[in-house]
Amino acid sequence: MVSPLNGVPTLGKPNRNGFASSILAWLGGSKNVTGQRTFEGYRVHTEKTLDIDRFPEACQNAPTALIRCDNYTEEWTTASYHGVLPREVDLESVCDKGCAQAISDWRSAVDTYCGNATWHNGAAAGVLGSFVSQGINETCQTDKSGNYCNDIINKFTVVNSIDKMPTNELCSDCYVGRLKMMQASPFSYYNRNSFFKSALKQAVKQPSEPAFCLSEVTYTTKAGDTCDSLATKYSVSSAAIIMGNPGIINCTNIVEGVDICLPLQCKTFTLEKDDSCMTVAAATGLDQGDICSLNPWVHPLCNNLQDGTQTLGQVIFITPPGGKYKHDVNTTNSDLTYSEYAGKAVSPPSGATLADKTIKDCGRWYTVQKGDNCAIVLVQYHISLPLFIQANPSVSEGNCTTNLVPGRTYCVGPTKEAFAAKPQPVPPFHRFGCFAGEADTKNRTVLTLAEAQHVKPMSITACQSFCL
């Protein structure tokens, strides 16, 4: 059997109809001619192209090489949208594989011989070929069935705006694929017309995250609801309701059927028409700063309290939303600031054998079991490795697990006092170590020579403690 140049061979043996086999072999498919098309070709640059002499000789030859492609593609040297071709243009010729290969070879040659060389306007030497290649890619785009996408898109419903496009057309493989193809290339018209950006954004929407409600309490508004009525009913601030729910536009006339997230509860105060920060402070025991911090919309000078009620309602916070923060560290045997430490020392378990050099000023003990490792011990007792090593010097940082001895007891909660500096005894001193004069001193120095040359003179610390 005879097959097209560079085509897949079609063998006669598997075919019952030899004549049909011959036809298939020669056509190679309904959209291809025998072998590859022969194009006269064109040049996007000639030796007369302005500024081409700025390039090295080898680079000058590459851009002026003949591109054997359908001559219609010669016009695609600028960015444009490539839709359905005019009737007189042979689409199969434009989309011939040989045409695409020719422009690809031209671009490769220019890249090889010109490297980073640019024209006077800063464009790369092969920029025109890149525009042509983009035009071929858009024009010859097909769907999964092999149909040209331009023919499919051309039959789309005519609409006034992108948001009115039928979903099946907007999200079709051809339309989304075209927009993505344009977005990916600097040689397309994508960045020159905001329509394409909007279209892609509409077609490929980002998945939305589920609405977050801190209080986990939601409510569907009913007829007659206001921010004040809801605030009073649920013990929340009216301002927090409207600020936390964009679906509420008017606090005094809430639309029915809106799903809202209720704020965290607190103690509230309902403002009267003549209330000021001073009267609120007197009634609640708060100062002006507390009122402003609990209700951020209130100006630091507290001069907009009544003005704000017109849009934000009359119910304000007088305690922190959700209540005051409670520290959950165990205060029985831990220090609030240093939770790794025990509050007081306790004796080791009865019969315990302490690990070598383990401290005794410890409030929590652990006897290592077979199979234990440092990670288990540290996590279970919430103690850091450096502190564990400090309390148990027989354990080292690099070999913590290896150093653990099953059956030995280790400190897992030292007291802070365990590492505090121990008081040192006052060194021997004598009274005249202090530079104190005496009433009966007559014409003699405060210190005698023997006293000044004492082998253990008083220290500064001792002097401060005992003489001053």
How much helix, percentage-wise, in residues? Answer: 25-40%
- The global form is flat
Average predicted local confidence, pLDDT: 81
Query: What string gives the helices and strands in order?
Result: HHHHHHHHHEHHEEHHHEEEHHHEHH
What distance lies between the first and last C-alpha atoms, to the nearest angstrom?
119 Å
GO molecular function: chitin binding
Protein name: LysM domain-containing protein
InterPro entries: LysM, LysM1-like
Family: Belongs to the secreted LysM effector family.
Feature tags:
468 residues; mainly alpha; 3-stranded mixed sheet; two-stranded antiparallel ribbon; 19 helices; flat; disordered N terminus; LysM; LysM domain-containing protein; LysM1-like; chitin binding
Describe this structure in words.
31% of the residues lie in helices and 6% in strands. The chain is mainly α. It folds into five domains: 34 residues, no CATH class; 152 residues, no CATH class; 100 residues, no CATH class; 94 residues, no CATH class; 36 residues, no CATH class. The chain starts with 17 loop residues before the first helix and ends with a helix.
